[in-house]
User: Which sequence fits this backbone?
């Protein structure tokens, strides 16, 4: 599998998949990848990106998720900083995985230019609503780091941890691995993709392996995001809500439970670079024939915001506070 760092490109209210062309989009996202990111992504990302915040130079894809905020006892909000994944450098952002099938000799078909997909439901506010995307989860990290990168298995949970996490909170977003082989996108950005199946009535899906259904026969890489949220500065009981059992973290979508975390993906690798990486079963952040840059150099790739808002002051983002007021969280 490939596992590499993509540092922060920009943090702003844009969502080219769900709200193409809308400036601003309803909620805040953190974006990594190719510098040509904009409100529509209707162009060739690899051709128009002058740099990438990922360590693989051929990867001008764009990856984005919701943003985590801390709501203090006094009602103020502060954006939670991000740190690189375990063993990686750079600046915040997302650790990106591309994982081929576990079956020896199985063919993995790389995505095509223009391909895009979405996983997670920004509107999910209950466990039942989030059940359709079982591979989105959170882990309360130990102070020494976590060497077990299990994909949403115990001790991970769909909800945000309601306790101090010595090493911060890790959120994981995992995409389906079966494609219909025709559509580069779909109206809901989901139905052109499917999870593999096991074939039993009681356990029909095999999210990490299995066989692709006849409707979606093409096996594509399993794309997975890990985001490390440095919540340690908030490990102070005096800052947390006074009510016992309440946790103070809120997604930028207005969700205080954790159900609405989501991930968006638009493919932007140059040429056949990703196909070669999958064929060669490359591992980690090095792949023969694929040029790389240091995490520090990748972190230099940023873009100006299209939606200019203050997302870090004590008078935290009026749009966020207003949105939370509307849905009754503040």
Assistant:
């Amino acid at each position: 599998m490939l596992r590499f760092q993509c540092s922060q490109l920009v943090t702003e209210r844009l969502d080219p998949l769900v709200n193409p062309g809308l400036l601003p989009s309803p909620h805040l996202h953190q974006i990594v990848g190719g510098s040509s990111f904009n409100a529509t992504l209707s162009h060739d990302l690899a051709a128009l990106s002058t740099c990438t915040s990922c360590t693989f130079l051929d990867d001008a894809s764009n990856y984005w998720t919701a943003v985590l905020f801390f709501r203090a006892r006094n009602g103020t909000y502060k954006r939670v900083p991000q740190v690189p994944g375990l063993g990686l450098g750079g600046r915040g952002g997302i650790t990106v995985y591309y994982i081929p099938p576990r079956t020896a000799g199985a063919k993995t078909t790389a995505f095509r230019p223009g391909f895009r997909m979405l996983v997670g439901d920004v509107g999910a506010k209950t466990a039942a609503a989030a059940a359709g995307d079982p591979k989105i989860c959170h882990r309360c990290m130990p102070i020494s780091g976590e060497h077990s990168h299990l994909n949403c298995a115990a001790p991970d949970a769909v909800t945000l941890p309601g306790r101090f996490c010595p090493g911060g909170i890790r959120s994981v977003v995992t995409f389906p691995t079966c494609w219909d082989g025709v559509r580069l996108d779909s109206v809901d950005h989901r139905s052109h993709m499917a999870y593999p199946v096991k074939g039993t009535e009681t356990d029909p899906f095999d999210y990490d392996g299995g066989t692709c259904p006849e409707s979606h026969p093409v096996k594509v890489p399993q794309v997975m995001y890990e985001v490390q949220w440095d919540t340690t500065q908030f490990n102070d009981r005096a800052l947390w809500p006074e009510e016992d059992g309440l946790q103070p973290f809120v997604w930028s979508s207005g969700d205080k439970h954790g159900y609405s975390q989501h991930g968006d993906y638009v493919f932007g690798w140059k040429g056949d670079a990703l196909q070669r990486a999958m064929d060669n079963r490359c591992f980690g952040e090095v792949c023969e024939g694929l040029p790389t840059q240091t995490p520090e150099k990748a972190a230099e790739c940023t873009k100006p915001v299209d939606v200019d808002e203050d997302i870090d002051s004590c008078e935290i983002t009026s749009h966020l506070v207003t949105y939370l007021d509307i849905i009754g969280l503040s």
User: Anything to note?
Assistant: Residues 1-129+218-330 form one domain. The first helix runs from residue 45 to 48. Confidence is low (pLDDT under 50) at residues 314-318, 321-330.
